[in-house]
From TrEMBL:
Gene3D superfamilies: Medium-chain alcohol dehydrogenases, catalytic domain (3.90.180.10), NAD(P)-binding Rossmann-like Domain (3.40.50.720)
Protein name: NADPH-dependent curcumin reductase CurA
Pfam family, one: DUF2855
Superkingdom of the source species: Bacteria
Protein source organism: Lentzea waywayandensis
Length: 351
């Protein structure tokens, strides 16, 4: 027998956690096409908190159903190893990267693709395809064993940074000279700032007073201001990673018609507020457009180049702190959820 664990949270109160334990046979019976994965290494950032905050809206609770009524499992990005398989192409020992539960194990129904497989389990069929794909590391040209920590932390975020910056360039910055970015200390925000450097716009970061120094130290923003400071009045685009209604209102009041575009990407402040003045950034639209413009290979080549440039620097910006097991996973979850995590360090958990 082997013990498996799953961390569940209360959907209405994300601070309430519980570890569920199961005693299961070492190698359980799998149906045709099923593969048993053992979770190995994951990252945890504010992005995972957002999955919980808008879990009902987007269907994030439906990926990994577990627990009782009102409970759910938070999805994480990371690596897992095949421990048992009914699929010849995915033998035990195969290492994969993708969307994983806060749990020691996961059974998927693998439908093979050129890069790995898709989980075709019934409960995932209706969910956004990007979250159902798993990459086999030996088939992934971007995989580098030495960069696993950076991959679990940044890869899901940096694709958004890459596409968001590209969409602004593609639209000539909507006539703006400045890009104002909130939650500037967050990884997705500073990844965007990195992509905007040298593109002919001023990049201004807004952040909490306690994170000003860290955000300045990145050297990616032309100016870093605390949330209550006033930005210069000039043609600007706002990229909102915070979701703060107060910051949005203050910017609209100050910039008026000079605010050429207001784009929502995240909600680190954990309030899902909708405002008709802001457009939601939908990464798959830009992904589709650039696949048509550049072809899938052209896009992969450009993203690969950008990713290599980013990872060459990212290790100097943010240190990695290692944790292990369900109890430390919960400690990290509570710290990130409470906004207590230090942006100068990022958390990787091995299971
Ligand atoms: N739409 C998309 O496709 C997409 C893709 C990726 C990420 N995102 C979103 O982008 C946002 C950033 O994600 P990330 O993983 O890059 O974040 P991260 O690196 O973990 O960001 C941490 C920062 O977020 C702010 N923050 C975190 N918790 C907070 C709290 N409880 N209260 C107030 N502020 C808090 C703080 O920044 P400040 O002090 O600077 O505010 C903190 O330094 C998330 O909302 C995520 O969902 C969206």
């Amino acid at each position: 027998m082997t013990t498996r664990w799953t961390v569940v949270v209360d959907r209405d109160d994300l601070t309430k956690t519980e570890v569920l334990h199961d005693e299961l046979p070492e190698l359980p019976e799998l149906s045709d096409c099923e593969v048993l994965l053992r979770t190995s290494r994951v990252g945890l950032t504010a992005n995972n908190v957002t999955y919980g905050v808008i879990g009902d809206l987007i269907g994030y609770w439906n990926f990994f159903p577990a627990g009782g009524p009102g409970q759910g499992v938070i999805p994480l990005w990371g690596f897992a190893d095949v421990v048992e398989s009914t699929v010849d192409a995915l033998p035990a020992g195969t290492r994969v990267y993708g969307y994983l539960p806060m749990a020691s194990h996961l059974v998927v129904r693998a439908k093979l693709t050129s890069a790995g497989f898709v989980d075709a389990s019934d409960h995932r069929v209706e969910l956004p395809a990007v979250y159902n794909s798993y990459l086999v590391t030996t088939q992934d040209p971007a995989y580098d064993e030495r960069l696993e920590d950076l991959q679990v932390l940044y890869r899901p975020l940096f694709l958004t940074s890459f596409l968001l910056a590209d969409q602004l360039v593609d639209n000539d910055f909507h006539g703006a000279k400045t890009v104002v970015i909130s939650s500037a200390s967050s990884k997705t925000a500073f990844g965007t700032a990195q992509r905007l450097r040298g593109q002919g716009v001023r990049v201004v970061g807004l952040t909490s007073p306690r994170n000003v120094e860290f955000t300045q130290s990145l050297g990616l923003y032309d100016a870093v201001l605390p949330y209550d400071a006033s930005v210069d009045v000039e043609p600007s685009v706002y990229l909102d990673f915070s979701g703060s209604a107060d910051v949005r209102s203050a910017l609209h009041s100050r910039l008026g018609a000079e605010l050429k575009k207001d784009i929502s990407i995240g909600l680190t402040h954990q309030a899902a507020s909708q405002d008709s003045r802001s457009e939601f950034f939908f990464a798959p639209d830009q992904l589709r457009k650039r696949t048509a413009d550049w072809g899938a290979d052209g896009l992969a080549q450009r993203f690969g180049e950008a990713w290599r440039g980013f990872t060459a620097q990212a290790g100097d910006w943010v240190g990695v702190v290692q944790h292990s097991g369900p109890d430390e996973l919960i400690d990290v979850w509570q710290a990130v959820l409470a906004g207590k995590a230090n942006p100068a360090s990022a958390d990787v958990i091995t299971f």
